[in-house]
């Protein structure tokens, strides 16, 4: 049903009772669902015939899996924002710089000072020699937070 048909039908629908409108909506929804099922069948049939025609090629049914990868610096700052000390320790032991910053200059040390996380601060400064003299965009250094 196209837009002009729906507009033409509005005057008739306005005079229907609530029950009649609900029944009409239910029937239309069922019809939409049937149309969708039919389109899916046709799409799958077309897809299967396309696969059969390309049987000598690489298996088309296995779609490449999508993965999102974040840099270690981003993962460090995210772990610090979650106060995940174990993850921060793991990343630092992996060699990620404790001085890694985001685009605003915020470091894991800034984040732990903002969150008042003393355990994270000790991890960064004592265990991994994080520098305290880094500033982020608002001009705040960890020793001033």
Number of domains: 2
Distance linking N and C termini = 63 Å
- Architecture of the largest domain in CATH? Alpha Horseshoe
- Strand residue percentage: under 5%
Helix content: 55-70%
Which stretches are poorly predicted, pLDDT < 50 over at least 5 residues? Answer: none
Shape: elongated
Largest sheet, described in full? none
* Name of the CATH first level of the largest domain: Mainly Alpha
User: Structural class of the secondary elements?
Assistant: mainly alpha
Number of strand segments: 0
Radius of gyration: 30 Å
Helices and strands, in order, run as HHHHHH
CATH topology group of the largest domain: Serine Threonine Protein Phosphatase 5, Tetratricopeptide repeat
Mean pLDDT over the residues? 81
Instruction: State the fourth-level CATH superfamily of the largest domain.
Output: Ankyrin repeat-containing domain
Number of helices: 6
């Amino acid at each position: 049903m196209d837009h002009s048909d729906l507009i033409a039908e509005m005057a008739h629908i306005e005079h229907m009772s609530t029950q009649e409108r609900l029944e009409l909506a239910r029937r239309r929804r069922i019809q939409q669902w049937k149309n969708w099922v039919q389109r899916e069948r046709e799409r799958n049939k077309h897809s299967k015939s396309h696969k059969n025609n390309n049987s000598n090629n690489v298996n088309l049914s296995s779609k490449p899996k999508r993965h999102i990868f974040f840099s270690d610096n981003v993962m460090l700052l995210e772990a610090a924002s979650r106060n995940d000390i174990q993850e921060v320790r793991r990343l630092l032991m992996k060699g990620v710089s404790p001085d890694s910053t985001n685009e605003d200059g915020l470091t894991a040390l800034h984040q732990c000072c903002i969150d008042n996380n003393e355990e994270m601060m000790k991890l960064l400064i004592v265990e991994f020699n994080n520098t305290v003299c880094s500033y982020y965009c608002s001009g705040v250094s960890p020793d001033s937070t």
